[in-house]
């Protein structure tokens, strides 16, 4: 039982809906609904890919920034080392 509705009642409702709308219209409606769901999924996947690309860009900029900091530290260390020798 599905919430007090038996399978026979569901079959009768389905038969009435088919008689009112016809199978062709129901098939078209199902195809349209499927197309809308596919479009929604594609949009969500594109949005996730854009977010991943943005994260990768941010990580790349962070890596470049930290590499620049390392170069500055190396240059300062070299200056200090040269001054100590003199």
UniProtKB/TrEMBL annotation:
Keyword Membrane part of the UniProt annotation: yes
Predominant place of localization: membrane
Comp. bias (Basic and acidic residues): 44-60, 69-86
Ranges in coiled-coil conformation: none
Subcellular location field: Cell membrane
One Pfam family linked to the record: TatA_B_E
Entry keyword Protein biosynthesis: no
Tree of life domain: Bacteria
Region (Disordered): 43-86
Sorted UniProt keywords: Cell membrane, Membrane, Protein transport, Translocation, Transmembrane, Transmembrane helix, Transport
Segments crossing the lipid bilayer: 6-23
Topology in the lipid bilayer: Single-pass membrane protein
Subunit structure: The Tat system comprises two distinct complexes: a TatABC complex, containing multiple copies of TatA, TatB and TatC subunits, and a separate TatA complex, containing only TatA subunits. Substrates initially bind to the TatABC complex, which probably triggers association of the separate TatA complex to form the active translocon.
Role played: Part of the twin-arginine translocation (Tat) system that transports large folded proteins containing a characteristic twin-arginine motif in their signal peptide across membranes. TatA could form the protein-conducting channel of the Tat system.
Family stated for the protein in its record: Belongs to the TatA/E family.
The name this protein goes by in its record: Sec-independent protein translocase protein TatA
Species of origin: Thalassolituus maritimus
Name of the gene this protein is made from: tatA
